[in-house]
Design brief:
Layout lengths: L1 E4 L4 H8 L6 E2 L14 H17 L6 E12 L2 E3 L5 H11 L3 E12 L2 E13 L4 H9 L20 E5 L2 H5 L3 H8 L8
Parallel strand pairs: 1-2, 1-3
Antiparallel strand pairs: 3-4, 3-5, 5-6, 6-7
């Protein structure tokens, strides 16, 4: 069966390729703004499903489409992708020395059915100096990442502790993704 990844994220492509399955990539456009009073877990599940559905709308029946979304959550506040360098530095300053949650939802849409899985991880940053934050922001790495950091990049040196899914923090939880592709249909999000 044909599989479409509704994401142009290089990280998601690399992760899905680790499952040794053939897939195609499709760009989708979805409004990623949180709804008023929306919980972070509901937000990522809604967006993952919206992305999968947007991808599925471009293909005929009997095609599986995966969509995913990732956010960082600190004290109930959703940190998406930073708007610019200053926003990235502010996010990193707030994450410095604290434990935050990374939520990644992955959704599969096929014909009229869908399923959604949620991966929740806890990440603890060591305290960061303003100089470290500025140097990291100068690399450009944080600009297109939820929470303004890449666990697989230079920010790995900031992480004191990870509890949960490394691939989920990267943007596509492989356990949950494999479960969906194996045919799991119940919604667990």
């Amino acid at each position: 069966m044909r599989l479409i990844l509704a994401s142009t994220s290089p990280r998601r492509r690399e992760l899905l390729a680790q499952l040794d399955i053939e897939f195609e990539v499709a760009a989708v456009a979805v409004d990623e703004r949180p709804l008023a009073a929306e919980l972070a877990s509901d937000h990522v599940c809604r967006l993952a499903l919206a992305k999968a559905r947007a991808g599925a709308a471009n293909y005929g029946p009997h095609v599986q489409v995966l969509g995913a979304d990732t956010v960082v959550v600190l004290k109930g506040e959703i940190f998406g992708k930073p708007a610019d360098r200053d926003h990235a530095a502010a996010m990193l300053g707030r994450l410095s020395g604290h434990t935050h949650q990374v939520l990644t939802a992955v959704a599969r849409v096929q014909d009229a059915s869908h399923a959604v899985r949620l991966s929740a991880s806890e990440v603890t940053f060591r305290p960061l100096s303003p100089t470290e934050i500025a140097a990291y922001c100068d690399t450009g790495e944080p600009l297109d990442k939820a929470g303004a950091y890449a666990i697989q990049g230079r920010a790995a040196a900031f992480i004191r502790h990870l509890e949960g899914s490394y691939s989920g923090v990267m943007g596509l939880p492989l356990f949950e993704t494999a479960e969906l592709l194996a045919g799991a249909t119940s919604k667990r999000c």
